[in-house]
TrEMBL record, chain A:
Record-given protein name: NADH-ubiquinone oxidoreductase chain 4
EC category: translocase
Primary role: Core subunit of the mitochondrial membrane respiratory chain NADH dehydrogenase (Complex I) which catalyzes electron transfer from NADH through the respiratory chain, using ubiquinone as an electron acceptor. Essential for the catalytic activity and assembly of complex I.
Annotated source species: Brachionus calyciflorus
EC number from the UniProt entry: 7.1.1.2
Broad class of where this protein is predominantly found: mitochondrion
Automatic annotation (TrEMBL), chain B:
Pfam family, one: Proton_antipo_M
Organism classification: Eukaryota, Metazoa, Spiralia, Gnathifera, Rotifera
Gene Ontology annotations of biological process type: ATP synthesis coupled electron transport; electron transport coupled proton transport
Name this protein carries in UniProt: NADH:ubiquinone reductase (H(+)-translocating)
Listed GO CC annotations: membrane
The keyword Cell wall biogenesis/degradation appears for this protein: no
Cleavable signal peptide: none
Transmembrane segments: 7-28, 61-81, 88-105, 111-131, 143-165, 200-227, 233-257, 269-295, 330-349, 369-390, 419-444, 450-469, 481-504, 546-563
Catalytic activity, as annotated: a ubiquinone + NADH + 5 H(+)(in) = a ubiquinol + NAD(+) + 4 H(+)(out)
Protein location: Membrane
Its membrane topology: Multi-pass membrane protein
GO MF terms, alphabetically ordered: NADH dehydrogenase (ubiquinone) activity; NADH dehydrogenase activity
């Protein structure tokens, strides 16, 4: 592993051709596949953890980085871009595969740096400094208490290891500690209330930045929660926060309905998708853990595609306001087909595998509270309502005569087609679950 | 011309599968068999999610009828949709729609049933917004939202079923929990537009006519009723729910008939007639007449799709005007379409020995044996009266002498089109007798007194004589009354305007006060303020003179050592 990394780093630093990153990415993927194939019977390797979570998350990371990379190819500064993508890959790989609490924390914090760089360097508005600051404040405010919790964990167990033989002996930590652990990772999810950095960062970030942000970075929190689930005092946590999650699960969808900016709407919709994860975590059973992985995987596939479509539409219309983009079905049938497919995917309509994750979500968390039925009813209904809002506003509305036919440029057509085609084998991963 | 081959290809495909399905249903119903095919898709520990098909006489005959209607629609839509550009889009979506309906009919696992169920709602949205004008978008969105209401109920039903008994296959899932049964019934009621969920049905008329013919006869609206019949083994266990359904569907039938008297829009009137028939089928189902209700659903599918298709043909000649008063002198201008229309109307009226007679009058007779009160029977016969009334409206207007010149666009369809409609007409005529005498072996026959037997025919005759002698239809000139009835007795106002306004204002207030108010202030601006304060404090500290900072540091060290 190390020799591979070093040699590829060497190759990478001295090359200016950006396609080498793609080569590197696929090489990395194959290396991961072959190296884990040998250990597929065992749950962990001495170097990195190889289980269901890490497998699917690595697949997703490679997918997201690949499509966001080929979307960003038009940028001129190859070297900096490659460096950012490379460091993102390393840090995300670290979080997804580590079995060590300290390393988890280390990579988790490090993954902030590339996205901050992306927002500050390639963002287009002057407000990006504010949004970068908010991102920094929100995501790091709970990590300082987390260090203390980490040291308590070390002093109790004599090791930072989170791997399975040790986990079975552990008892959950106190309520305060588990709240700190939960909040540390829930900020990155994000859970509603700690989410204010997300729409700001998405609006300011360039398209490939928000693709990475929505596709990979939001999953870091979920994976962190999955790794530390046995440290959390779930009954106490659930009695404290269940009502909050139930109410705000519905409330986020209402917030989504009132967005007029397409990119902001997609950002809020990813908040509403991610609000399912704390509920699933609290109803800690086999099916709900499976459902968390599925939800994260399919959200990681659908939201980068949606953000890419936002970018393409922005490059065509120079606006992201829903009321200004009209009648796409006649002016550009290709983009409207893509939008419809993405609509089905995010809506979790049946032919798409995200439907399975949604049904599993409803099934497995039904036992938490009997009131959940009503909230789920509103949630599923309103999640259609806000998705239908953008779809019918942009695609099926009557087009104004001022809009002529738009040509999609190759640099935006190629990534779109590639991402949709790549999405097909990725969704077939569901059968591995 | 490529569009012609597209239509031909889909017609061939659907007609071939119709032939197979017909043979299959003959086999199944004559051998009295039921086939169960199950394929395991994926499993979660011991819970297997399997795609399972259940083919008995119900599902096979229903899918045969669907395939017959849809293969005729393929030929029909070549004529009807020829002027429009998005022909391939239209064909693919229509076939997706038919496919999802076939999934609903044949699938027996609740989880995979959702595949077809959700597909029906979503694809119908794309078909309704086909013309891309404001009214079609409004009605499409409303239809989709109402269907999504049903989908949410369905998702919750799946979750509750799974939560109590983790087997989602029909006939093996087994529970009598009242909440989940209620959700199940509500799901099916939204799709088949039983009373509180009905205003989407006339709005869905914004779709092109071939789609209306599909939606209103055999696909979208009957999916709910059909699934009620499939899940009757669970639903019949609750007497309360069946009574509720009886009352609601009787009222649906009643108010649809009432509205259709005042309706002058051709397609809307037929939609309301569909609604009243849906109520009729729901009523028959809820009072226990399972197989008769199914039988009437099939005959209704045949004659209603025929009626819609002929109406579309006439409407092309009327330059797509949908006013019923332009229908005058139909036999003179559009003899073929009017002939076929009369066939379907006579079936609808239930003239003796036509297919509507066998299914509808049997239900009316068997209702005498049900334990429901005299009030139910009274309203039922009121509904029969309304049915005769609005059907005779079509007769009446099509025999009117011509006053204006409505026929502007003479455009005769091709031979294949006419042949297909004739085949449909003949099969509609013969289907009732055939099905009753050969297939429907599960119905029981009771003796009926002469009064009950002849009452529907008597009402029919009275209506006909009344119109014949009076030569004038009842019309209302009161704008209030017309408004009241054209908005489905304020139900569509309530569900469309009022609920959206209420929802919009309420949630806008909520978002403004919480998302952009309290939370934004307390979480967003407060840390920012703290951050700036902190950074200015650090800045001040760094600009102190060195001696002071040494003093600070030493005092801090002392404090630390004391603490340790």
């Amino acid at each position: 592993m190390t020799t591979f990394l070093v040699s590829s780093l060497y190759m990478f630093l001295f090359s200016h051709s950006s396609f080498l990153f793609v080569l590197f990415l696929t090489g990395f993927w194959f290396y991961y596949l072959f190296s884990t194939m040998m250990y597929s019977n065992q749950s962990y390797d001495y170097l990195y953890l190889m289980d269901e979570v890490s497998l699917f998350m690595i697949f997703m990371t490679v997918f997201v980085l690949f499509i966001s990379y080929i979307y960003s190819i038009t940028f001129k500064s190859n070297f900096k871009l490659n460096l950012v993508f490379f460091s993102m890959l390393i840090f995300c790989f670290g979080v997804f595969t580590t079995q060590n609490m300290f390393l988890l924390y280390f990579f988790y914090e490090c993954s902030l740096l590339p996205i901050l760089y992306i927002i500050i360097k390639w963002g287009s508005y002057p407000e990006r400094s504010l949004s970068a600051m908010m991102l920094l404040i929100y995501t790091s405010i709970f990590t300082f208490p987390f260090i203390a919790v980490m040291f308590i964990f070390y002093s109790l167990n004599g090791s930072f290891s989170l791997s399975l033989p040790f986990m079975s002996l552990m008892s959950p930590m106190s309520l305060l500690a588990s709240l700190v652990i939960f909040c540390t990772f829930a900020v990155k999810l994000p859970v509603y209330g700690l989410h204010f950095w997300l729409p700001m960062a998405h609006v300011e970030a360039p398209t490939f930045g928000s693709m990475i942000l929505a596709g990979v970075l939001l999953k870091l929190g979920g994976v962190g929660l999955l790794r530390t689930i046995s440290l959390l005092d779930l009954p106490a946590l659930s009695s404290l926060t269940l009502g909050y999650f139930m109410v705000f699960l519905v409330y986020v969808t209402v917030v989504c309905l009132f967005q007029s900016d397409f990119k902001r709407l997609v950002a809020y919709s990813s908040v509403s998708h991610m609000m399912a994860i704390p509920l699933l975590l609290l109803s800690n059973n086999l099916m709900s853990i499976k459902s968390i992985i599925m939800l994260m995987l399919f959200h990681g596939l659908s939201s980068p595609i949606l953000f890419m479509l936002v970018g393409v539409i922005y490059s065509m219309f120079s606006t992201r306001q829903l009321v200004l983009i009209r009648g796409l079905l006649l002016t550009s049938p290709l983009i409207s087909l893509m939008l419809i497919l993405a609509f089905f995917f995010t809506l979790s309509a049946p032919p798409f595998p995200s439907f399975v994750s949604e049904v599993y979500f409803l099934m497995s968390s039904m036992g938490l509270s009997s009131y959940l039925v009503y909230f789920f009813f509103l949630f599923t209904f309103l999640s259609l309502a806000y998705n239908l809002n953008w779809l019918s506003a942009m695609v099926f509305s009557s087009s104004s005569p001022s809009i002529t036919t738009m040509m999609v440029s190759y640099s935006s057509f190629m990534p779109m087609i590639t991402s949709f085609l790549l999405c097909v084998p990725m969704t077939l991963l569901m059968y591995l679950m | 011309m490529t569009s012609f081959y597209n239509h031909l290809m889909w017609f061939t495909f659907l007609f071939t599968s119709f032939c197979f399905s017909l043979l299959m249903s003959f086999y199944i119903s004559y051998m009295n068999q039921a086939l169960y095919v199950s394929i395991n898709m994926f499993s979660l520990w011991n819970n297997e999610m399997s795609v399972s098909f259940y083919l008995d006489y119900m599902s096979s005959w229903f899918s045969t009828i669907i395939l017959l209607i849809s293969s005729v629609i393929m030929v029909y839509s070549y004529f009807y949709m020829a002027p429009y550009s998005k022909s391939v889009y239209f064909l693919w979506l229509t076939n997706l729609f038919i496919f999802s309906m076939l999934m609903v009919v044949n699938m027996s696992n609740l989880f995979f049933l959702m595949l077809g169920w959700d597909g029906l709602g979503l694809v119908s949205f794309f078909l309704i917004v086909y013309y891309q004008n404001q009214s079609s978008i409004t009605s499409g969105m409303f239809t989709l939202l109402m269907n999504r209401l049903g989908d949410s109920f369905f998702l919750l039903t799946i979750a509750l079923f799974f939560y109590t008994y983790p087997d989602l296959t029909m006939f093996s899932s087994n529970l009598t929990d009242f909440l989940s049964l209620t959700l199940l019934l509500l799901t099916f009621m939204t799709k088949s537009a039983i009373y509180p969920f009905s205003p989407w049905l006339p709005l869905a008329m914004a779709a092109p006519t071939p789609i209306s013919a599909l939606v209103h006869s055999s696909t979208l609206v009957t999916a709910g009723l059909y699934l009620m019949m499939r899940f009757s083994y669970l639903l019949y266990s609750s007497y309360t729910l069946m009574q509720l359904l009886l009352i609601l569907s009787l009222f649906t039938s009643f108010y649809a008939g009432m509205n259709s008297i005042f309706e002058k829009d051709l397609k809307k009137m037929i939609a309301l007639s569909t609604l009243s028939h849906l109520g009729f089928i729901g009523m028959a189902f809820s009072s226990g007449l399972l197989h008769l209700a199914f039988f009437h659903m099939l005959t209704h599918a045949l004659f209603k799709s025929l009626l819609f298709m002929t109406m579309g043909d006439i409407m092309i000649n009327l330059n797509h005007s949908q006013d019923i008063r332009y229908l005058s002198s139909g036999m003179l201008y559009t003899p073929m379409s009017c002939m076929v229309m009369y066939v379907s109307i006579l079936n609808l009226l239930g003239l003796p020995n036509l297919s509507g007679y066998f299914s509808k009058d049997l239900v009316l007779e068997m209702m005498n044996y049900s334990s429901s009160s005299i009030l139910v029977m009274l309203v039922l016969f009121m509904n029969v009266f309304f049915t005769y009334y609005y059907t005779y409206q079509l007769f009446f207007y099509s025999f009117q002498p011509i006053k204006v010149l409505p026929y502007q666009n003479f455009h005769s369809p091709m031979l294949g089109h006419t042949l297909c409609l004739f085949i449909m007409a003949i099969s509609t005529l013969l289907f009732g007798f055939f099905f009753l005498s050969h297939i429907c072996s599960l119905t029981l026959f009771y003796p009926v007194p002469l009064v009950n037997k002849s009452l529907p025919l008597f009402i029919n005759l009275i209506m006909f004589l009344h119109l014949f002698l009076n030569t004038k239809l009842f019309t209302s000139n009161s704008p209030m009354l017309n408004y009241y009835f054209s908005n489905m007795m304020f139900l569509s106002n309530l569900m469309l305007t009022l609920s959206s306004n209420l929802y919009y204002n309420l949630s806008f207030m909520l978002v403004k006060s919480l998302e952009f108010g309290v939370l934004n202030y307390s979480l967003n601006s407060y840390p920012k303020m703290m951050f700036t304060h902190l950074s200015s404090y650090v800045l001040n500290l760094s600009t102190l003179n060195p001696m002071k900072s040494v003093l600070f540091m030493s005092s801090f060290m002392v404090l630390l050592s004391v603490l340790i």
